[in-house]
Structure formats: structure tokens, C-alpha cells
Write a structure and sequence with these properties.
371 residues; alpha+beta; Helix Hairpins; HSP40/DNAj peptide-binding domain; four-stranded mixed sheet; three-stranded mixed sheet; 9 helices; 15 strands
């Protein structure tokens, strides 16, 4: 009778466990008992070997079916006979790399791939009208670009990078740890597979230099403060041939001396004389499109709001425009001539105790509260 433990028991899963559950259980336990985390611990090394053997079987649908039907006896001759550890002909580093990726530096890798360039942020201040109707702005963005001297190779003009003699251009070196054959990035070329013997002076071998580039940015109509515009590929140049990053333009709209914004609507306060409010008048009102005439009915009260349809902000990435809301502020004169005071006093006498019907409710409530 086999003295080996049940594979499902080793991984702590039941026989109906899915492939994902098996993989998750193995990853958790393998990290716990990996020799790198337990140097010199023979028991942990043995447990890790047992875990990996169980996973090699249960992660393979065909081997798992055979194991479910025949148990350990079905594995004899299939790569585990005599306590062997070759996973049925599958190289361990393939299995190890599939599970851990770069966790322990395992798996098959050639030289390091290019690194994507950094994203950049540019704060752009624009006027209220530019935010409303859109604009095109020229900006100067400092960023890392390809070195003109070496063309991005990092090597002095007239020379080229050479193949790393330590890793023979593979970018990684293999070493033995216990019963494992593992790989690490080459310490001499840092995973590049090449060595620059004569670095370019202007870029110091990096292949990139700081430059300032003038870019044209289209501001869509309807933007507001905080809007981010993405310019793909306009960030910093990547390393080792990697793609460039992106440029994010963050909009900051300058305050307007007359208009305020609420969503797609525009607010505008307009002062009028109390005589115009009492008798009615026709006044000119500023809008984003120019001045328009607005009729003020007789008896208009302060804070009365008039709507000018379609005179607001265009909807960003939408259709139509908002409205302009005109808020009336009735101004009371602070300096009057003697004749003006006399006329107002006559007006007050004519009015007697009468009050504006619109305000009658307020005074009724005052009388109820204070007698």
C-alpha cells in the first residue's frame, strides 16, 4: 500500500475543487513553504516538494482523472515512479513560472522588455469664454525624449551596445538552489542582454534627454475646472524601447467678473433702479453671445430671476446649451436731493399703510407673532 498522502489532502481541497481553487490553494501553501522563505529547513523543503507534486497531478485534467480513478498506483510510470520529481516530463520551471510569475523570479524569460514611459500632468488655465465655446491652445511641455546624439541606444556615436558575456544576451542567469533550477535577472546587464561599453555623454547611457516640446491642445466646448484631457503617447519616452506615457491636461477655468456657472447654466446679477423696478423698463443684459434686451415688468422685486433660454454653456460631449439666469438686484439710492426726498415723502403719504400685495403675507405673520 502506498504511504503517500492523498493529493487533495495535501492541498487542503476536496475532490470537487475547481482548477482555480486548486491553483489558489497551491499558491498559498507554496509561498509558505518555499525554500527561499525557509533557508536550511529540510522539513519545509520536503513539504514544498510534496505540494508541487500534488499540484502537478491535480492541475493536469488527464493526470487528475487517472489519479481519481486509480489513486497513486495510477501515477506509477507517469513521471513519479520511485519517488522521482520530473512532473511527467514537464519542466518544473514552466510550472513554477506559471504559478508565481515574478514572485520569486521563476519562469522562462528572455531579456527584460522595454519599460513604459511616465505619464505627465499639465495644469492649463483658460478663460471662462474658452471653457464655454472651446479653444485651441499652444503649450510647452518639458519631458524626456529620445537622445538625438545616440538615437536612443545609449551608446556613444559610432559605437553600439554589445552582447552581455555573463548571460549571452538572454538577460537572465540560471542557478541551482536545492533541487530547483531557478533564474534571476543578469546582475551585469540588469536583464537587458546588452552592455554599453561607451555610454553616450549627453544622455549618460540612458538613451533619453530632457526637452521642451510645444503641443497644440484642442479644448472642447463645455469643459470646467477639474476636467482632464488625455493626450495618448504625449508623456515621457519609455526606457529600452518601451512605449511613451500619456499626457493629462487638467483644466483650470479663470473666474469671470460678471458670469458664474452652475452646471450648463450661467448666472448673471443685473442691478436696476427702484424706479425701473416699480414702473417697469427694458434693459440691456450681457450674455456670452453679446447683449440682449430684457423687459422688466412693473413691480419687479429684488432677486427676481429671468431665464434666457439657450444662452448658457454648451453641453460637454452632448447636445444643446444651458440657459442664462438673470437675477435682478433692485438698488435703493443712498444719496438724494431735497426734491427727490420731498417726492418720496409725498409718495409715502399717498400709500398710507398699504404694502405691496406680494409682501402682505410676511407682515401678517409679523402681526401674529408680535401683536
Amino acid at each position: 500500500m502506498s504511504t503517500k498522502r492523498d493529493y487533495y489532502e495535501i492541498l487542503g481541497v476536496n475532490q470537487n475543487a475547481s482548477e482555480a481553487e486548486i491553483k489558489k490553494a497551491y499558491r498559498k501553501l507554496a509561498i509558505q513553504f518555499h525554500p527561499d522563505k525557509n533557508p536550511g529547513d529540510k522539513q519545509a523543503e520536503a513539504q514544498f516538494k510534496e505540494l508541487s507534486e500534488a499540484y502537478a497531478v491535480l492541475s493536469d485534467p488527464q493526470k487528475r482523472a487517472t489519479y481519481d480513478q486509480f489513486g497513486h498506483a495510477g501515477m506509477e510510470g507517469g513521471g513519479f515512479s520511485g519517488g522521482g520529481f520530473d512532473f511527467g516530463g514537464t519542466p518544473f520551471e514552466d510550472l513554477f513560472g506559471d504559478i508565481f510569475g515574478d514572485v520569486f523570479g521563476g519562469g522562462r524569460r528572455s531579456r527584460s522588455r522595454g519599460q513604459r514611459g511616465d505619464d505627465l500632468r499639465f495644469n492649463l488655465g483658460i478663460k471662462f469664454e474658452e471653457a464655454a465655446f472651446g479653444a485651441e491652445k499652444k503649450v510647452q511641455v518639458p519631458r524626456m525624449e529620445q537622445c538625438e546624439s545616440c538615437g536612443g541606444t545609449g551608446a556613444e556615436e559610432g559605437t553600439s551596445p554589445v552582447t552581455c558575456p555573463t548571460c549571452n544576451g538572454m538577460g537572465q542567469v540560471r542557478f541551482q538552489q536545492g533541487f530547483f533550477s531557478l533564474t534571476r535577472p543578469c546582475p551585469d546587464c540588469q536583464g537587458q542582454g546588452q552592455i554599453i561599453e561607451n555610454p553616450c555623454r549627453p544622455c549618460r547611457g540612458t538613451g533619453r534627454t530632457q526637452m521642451t516640446r510645444t503641443l497644440s491642445i484642442k479644448i472642447p466646448a463645455g469643459v470646467e475646472s477639474g476636467t482632464r484631457l488625455k493626450l495618448a503617447g504625449e508623456g515621457e519616452l519609455g526606457l529600452r524601447g518601451g512605449p511613451p506615457g500619456d499626457l493629462y491636461v487638467v483644466i483650470d477655468v479663470e473666474p469671470h467678473p460678471i458670469f458664474e456657472r452652475e452646471g450648463v447654466d450661467v448666472l448673471c446679477e443685473v442691478p436696476i433702479a427702484f424706479v425701473q423696478a416699480a414702473l417697469g423698463a427694458e434693459i440691456e443684459v450681457p450674455t456670452l453671445d453679446g447683449k440682449v434686451d430684457l423687459k422688466i415688468p412693473a413691480g419687479t422685486q429684488s432677486n427676481k430671476v429671468f431665464k434666457l433660454s439657450g444662452k448658457g454653456i454648451p453641453a460637454l460631449q452632448g447636445y444643446g446649451r444651458g440657459d442664462q439666469l438673470v437675477v435682478i438686484r433692485v438698488e435703493v439710492p443712498t444719496k438724494m436731493t431735497a426734491r427727490q426726498k420731498e417726492l418720496l415723502e409725498e409718495f409715502a403719504q399717498e400709500c398710507g399703510d398699504e404694502v405691496n400685495p406680494e409682501n402682505q403675507g410676511f407682515f401678517d405673520k409679523v402681526k401674529e407673532l408680535f401683536g
